[in-house]
Amino acid sequence: MKLARKTMKAEVPSVAMGDIAFLLLIFFFILARAEDDSHLRWKPADVIRVENLGTTDLSIVINDEFKTFLNGGQIGNAQLAGVLEKRLEGRGPGFRKVRLKVDRATPAQYFEPVIEAISQAGGELEHVLEEKQEK
C-alpha cells in the first residue's frame, strides 16, 4: 500500500525581513561613523569670502595638538602620500579632491609636509577656512 506524501510549501519567512533590514541599517551607520572626523578639535583660519566645496570622501585634519588624521584615523606624514595614491588611483580630474582642515595655530612645519604628500599623490587640495565675521 502506498502512502500519499504530504506536500510542503516553501516560503521565505517574512517575519525575519524586518530584523534583517534593521541589522543592515545598524551596520551601515557603524561604517559611516568609521570615516567621520567630526570628533577632532580644530579651529579654521579666517578668510573674507568663502565658497561651498561640495563633497569629497578624503578628508585630512591637523588638529590643535598638531596630529594628522585621514578620515578620522591618525596617520603619519611618511605614510600619507602612499595611502592617498592608493585611494585616488583610477580617478580622473575633478574626482581627486582631498579636503584639508588645519587648526589656525598650526605652524607651517606640520602642514607643509601634508600639502606635499597630497601633491605627490596627485590630489586636488581643498583647504577649509571659516568666513570672517564682521564685528
Write up this protein.
With 135 residues, the protein is an alpha/beta fold. It has one domain (13-135). 33% of the residues lie in helices and 17% in strands. Strand 2 (59-62) and strand 3 (68-70) form a beta hairpin. The longest helix has 20 residues, at 15-34. It is elongated and about 95 Å long.
Task: State the main characteristics.
two-stranded parallel ribbon; 135 residues; 33% helix; 5-stranded mixed beta sheet; elongated; alpha/beta
Biggest sheet features: 5 strands, mixed
User: How many helices in DSSP terms?
Assistant: 3
Give the structural class.
alpha/beta
**First-last Cα distance:** 99 Å
Uncertain runs are none
Classify the helix fraction into a percent range. 25-40%
The largest beta-sheet arranges its strands as 4-3-2-5-6
Blueprint of the fold:
Elements: H1 15-34, E1 46-47, E2 59-62, E3 68-70, E4 73-74, H2 77-88, E5 97-102, H3 108-120, E6 124-127, E7 130-131
Helix pairs in contact: 2-3
In a nutshell, what does this entry contain?
With 135 residues, the protein is α/β, with parallel strands linked by helices.
